[in-house]
Amino acid sequence: MLYTILKGLLFSACFSLLFTLNAAAAEDRPANPFSYAPFSKNQPPLALLNTLSRAAPAANPKVIGLALSALDCALTQGMSPARNLTVIDYSLVSTKPRLWVFDLVTGKLLFQELVAHGMNTGKNFARNFSNTYGSRQTSLGLFRTKETYVGANGYSLRMEGLEDGFNDKAMERAIVFHGADYVDLKLAKKLGHLGRSHGCPAVRRGVARKVIDTIKGEQFLFSYYPDQQWLAKSQFLNCANSQRWAQK
Out of 80, 94, 119, 167, which could bridge 139 as a Cys pair, Cβ 3.0 to 4.6 Å? Predict the structure, then answer.
């Protein structure tokens, strides 16, 4: 009798532990933002766009919409969902915040920051973009963030360019996300523009680690500029099976 009771208690404890572990693992897995309440497909298709636009009123809703279109296309192609989406709008002047990090599950804005562009992309305004090794220009399109490392620019984050012909040489070019002392408004007042990188999206040194730790590990980053060739040929902005969130 005692043996039977102990056996039952042991089974119950093991089952409870297994359930708890499975629940914890489920919480760690990123949810598909397009099927996660309150951003369900059963709701109006612009619900997520409207939520993110309200969270970041300084951002262009059109650019957020294009980022969501690209993300939706990536998910329809079988890429795994991500918790966060980073949006960079290089059509804005370098001395204004033009990088936003969104939590796609809660709809919250996590960061709004200055970000540098490549030295051959332009001075205060970005103008020229490239996927070519040695160009020292910024690349456009959808990226997937990878692992962190410590290199010449300190704590940095590798990025995989997902768009053929536009950013797929990012790894080869060592285009990474990092902090930089030249991302400083006091310096910008002297130069007339924010400091520039070799093509990397660089942010303030003081916030770099926090941002990197938030967006690392298979998250998405969308780099925008109204470049007509990219808009017309991007495989993620011209995806037949995805939801169109904004006009190009």
Answer: 167
Rounded distance, CA 32 to CA 84, Å?
11
Q: How far apart (Å, rounded) are the C-alpha atoms in residues 142 and 138? A: 13
Say if CB 187 and CB 170 are below 8 A apart: no
Instruction: Give the integer Cα–Cα distance in Å for 26 and 93.
Output: 41
CA dihedral 140, 146, 148, 151 (to 10 degrees): -50
* Tokens describing residue 72: 């939706």
Nearest Cα to 220, choosing from 131, 110, 109, 87?
Answer: 87
Paired sense of beta strands 202-204 and 220-224, if any: unpaired
Which residues contact residue 227 at a Cβ distance below 8 angstroms, ignoring those fewer than 6 apart?
129, 140
Read off the pLDDT of residues 173-203 as tens digits, 9 standing for 90 and up: 999 999 999 999 999 999 999 999 999 999 9
What distance in Å separates the CA atoms of residue 100 and residue 115, rounded to the nearest whole number? 10
Please tell me the chain's helix, strand, coil percentages from 3-state DSSP, rounded to the nearest 5.
30, 20, 45
Tokens at residue 150, please? 């410590």
Please give the full DSSP string across 39-102, using - where no structure is assigned: S-TTS-TTHHHHHHHHH-TTS-HHHHHHHHHHHHHHHHTTPPP-SEEEEEETTS-TTS--EEEE
